[in-house]
Amino acid sequence: MDYNLHTHTKRCHHASGEAEDYVLAAIKGGMRVYGFSDHVPQQFPDGRESGYRVPMAEGAAYCEEIRALREKYKDKIDIRIGFELEYYPLYFEQMLRNAIGFGAEYLILGQHFIHNEHPGGRYVINPHNEKEHLLVYVDTVIEAIRTGVFTYVAHPDIFQYNIHAPEYEESMRRLCVAARENSTPLEINFLGIRDKRIYPNTVFWKIAGEEKAPVTFGLDAHQTEDACDRASLAIAQSLVEKYKLNYIGMPKIIDIRSL
Ligand SMILES: [Zn+2]
Ligand SMILES: [Zn+2]
């Protein structure tokens, strides 16, 4: 694995490390393409900003910083400038315009909330029992895929629900079919592997294999120690083998600058 498009920085306040330290670690670890995709700034109509994102006031500086690093290390590594964002039907246009305005080139989808996050949104990693919430999550991700602007879907299996329920399989199969039809890769998330989270979950990846959805890897690095994370790679590769996943390697980057 010599690529990674899923890297955070200390600007989002729940990760640590300067962008340059990630770059140096990536070069040392033999990375060829390295993309930053910190949580996109977002301000809701009542003025609130989510605490886990890059602040609005730093969005442009974040892109500038990565751009300068790209220039500085251009002989050693191919650095890309991106954001991770949710698809909120109510705010998507604005979030997209902000990301482009700040200077980002690509986006990955990380659907951390349903129902537009604020006010009244629900955090997807909390346990959910209502089938309706599962359907909202899956419908939202599918709608996001169909916009065609996301380079890939990070941790598609992040929604916490009874993975053995028939409606879970049915819903995730729809998600995987949409990913295949739109050629949007689904990410096996290395942060989930490192932290032994509920994702990656085997029920989801079995379905992804059956539906031949395109699959890629993402480090989701939140500290420089994880800038390459070779330990999780073996586990991700074993999932690819076990479920005969359609692993495509480095995803084709969708350039949002011309949108
Ligand atoms: Zn994060
Ligand atoms: Zn992330």
Instruction: State the strand order across the main sheet.
Output: 1-2-3-4-7
CATH architecture annotation name = Alpha-Beta Barrel
The CATH class label is Alpha Beta
Helix percentage: 25-40%
Strand content: 5-15%
For this structure, what is the CATH homologous superfamily?
Metal-dependent hydrolases
Give the CA-based shape.
Answer: globular
Multimeric state? single chain
Arithmetic mean of pLDDT? 97
Instruction: State the domain count.
Output: 1
Largest sheet: 5 strands, parallel
Number of strands: 10
Low-confidence segments, given as residue ranges, are none
Q: What structural class do you assign from the helix and strand content?
A: alpha/beta
List keywords for this structure.
259 residues; 5-stranded parallel β-sheet; 3-stranded parallel β-sheet; globular; binds zinc ion
Give a short summary of the structure.
The chain has one domain: TIM Barrel (Alpha-Beta Barrel), CATH 3.20.20.140. The protein is 37% helix and 15% strand.
Structural features, described:
- The protein is of the alpha/beta class and 259 residues long.
- The chain has one domain: Alpha-Beta Barrel (TIM Barrel).
- Helix content is 37%, strand content 15%.
- It has eight helices and ten strands.
- The strands form three sheets. A five-stranded parallel β-sheet has the order 1-2-3-4-7. The chain has a three-stranded parallel β-sheet with strand order 8-9-10. A two-stranded antiparallel sheet has the order 5-6.
- Strand 5 and strand 6 form a beta hairpin.
- Helix 5 packs across helix 7.
- The chain is globular.
- The two termini are 30 Å apart.
- The relative contact order is 0.15.
- The protein binds zinc ion (2 copies).
- The site of one zinc ion (ZN) has 5 residues, from loops.
- One zinc ion binds next to loops.
